[in-house]
Amino acid sequence: MSTHVRSQEEIAARVKALESILIEKGIMTTAAVDRLVEIYENEVGPQLGAKVVARAWTDPVFKQRLLADATKACADFGIGGLQGEDMVVVENTADRHNVIVCTLCSCYPWTVLGLPPTWYKSPEYRARVVIEPRTVLAEFGVQLSDLTEIRVWDSNAETRYMVLPCRPAHTEDWSIDDLVGIITRDAMVGAAIVADPAEQQTRP
Amino acid sequence: MTRPAIVEQLDAHGQSAVPRTNGELTFSAPWEAAVFALAVALSDAGTFDWREFHQQLIAEIQRWERQAHPAEDWNYYQRWLAALEYVLCRRGLLTESELQDRAAALATHDHHH
């Protein structure tokens, strides 16, 4: 095996070569590749997961269905198309905080959160969050009481997880759209909590 | 259901118009987007099974992590590229020399412009 370290330009050239060979052989079309890039860069993203969470916060029947069978509940929402995996939604409560990881690679609930952030794919996060979740979460700014149980969910080829964060106080009269505005990607991974708006400066 | 069909369904509800929050760029270079899309599109087209690719991705990531002193910096989509090349070569759809020749040809072509 070569020890040559490829530059970014060389890698880019290699991908371009790969794409051109596959198109020439009729295995792939430019349109199919462009369409997928468009979908994942601009269309699928955490705003979809935020809608699912806001609905669960405001509709107890939907929340029950979501926790019982997230794949089905999300399909009803028009969200589907994972690579054959099941979706499982885990609920944060006053006593339990959930956080997701994929220790082997970087499985992630694409269809509700888009593509994972860089830190989620890093070897450091993948190795450390299972060993010392409380410390890692504190580094993310999530300070949990020692009484709060932390559960780490390791995604795999069969199952992808999403966290249902706790609904913050002082949002009782908020509309779904207002709620969607405060639900962050990191909160749905478990690397953040949704802040109490009374402790923030402004309402969205 | 194919992914474009899903997105069309979402478009119908106007959901794709919602701006992205948490604004990290999805891909840090165009080649990352291209290699990501290639793997998903090839799996969608049935060229290979997603799980076959997924298993190889895990293997490539482990190979990088097991090095005591990695020569290359960590880059997730570079592991993705290695897995994709491996699966395509194993299925006889691509050869290493074919890939190298084409990359060299494209580089020469670019330099002429």
Supply database-style keywords.
heterodimer, A: 204 residues, alpha/beta, two-stranded parallel ribbon, two-stranded parallel sheet, 11 helices, B: 113 residues, mainly alpha
Short description:
The complex is a heterodimer of chains A (204) and B (113). Chain A is α/β, with parallel strands linked by helices. Helices cover 47% and strands 12% of the residues of chain A.
Q: Which protein chains make the most extensive interface, counting residues with beta carbons within 8 Å of the other chain's beta carbons?
A: A-B, 61 and 67 residues
Q: Helices and strands of chain A: which structural class?
A: alpha/beta
Strand content of chain A: 5-15%
How confident is the prediction overall: mean pLDDT of chain B?
A: 77
State the oligomer: heterodimer
| Approximate helicity band of chain B | 55-70%
Write the H/E string of chain B, N to C: HHHHH
User: What portion of residues of chain B belong to β-strands?
Assistant: under 5%
Largest sheet of chain A: 2 strands, parallel
Give the low-confidence spans of chain A.
none
- Give the CA-CA distance, first to last residue of chain B: 43 Å
**Given the C-alpha coordinates, what overall shape of chain A results?**
globular
Task: Give Rg of chain A in angstroms.
Answer: 19 Å
Describe the protein.
The complex is a heterodimer of chains A (204) and B (113). Chain A is an alpha/beta fold and 204 residues long. Chain A is built from 11 helices and 4 strands, in the order αααααββααααββαα. Chain A has helices at 8-24, 30-43, 46-58, 60-68, 70-76, 110-113, 118-121, 123-131, 133-139, 176-182, 185-189; strands at residues 86-91, 96-101, 149-154, 159-164. In chain A, the strands form 2 sheets. A two-stranded parallel sheet of chain A has the order 1-4. In chain A, strands 2-3 form a two-stranded parallel ribbon. In chain A, helix 3 (46-58) packs across helix 4 (60-68). The longest helix of chain A has 17 residues, at 8-24. Chain A is globular and about 55 Å long. Chain A starts with 7 loop residues before the first helix and ends in a 15-residue tail after the last helix. The mean pLDDT of chain A is 90. Chain B is mostly helical. Chain B has helices spanning 3-12, 30-44, 50-65, 76-90, 96-111. In chain B, helix 2 (30-44) packs parallel to helix 4 (76-90) and helix 3 (50-65) crosses helix 4. The radius of gyration of chain B is 17 Å and the shape is globular. Chain B starts with a helix and ends with a helix. The relative contact order of chain B is 0.09.
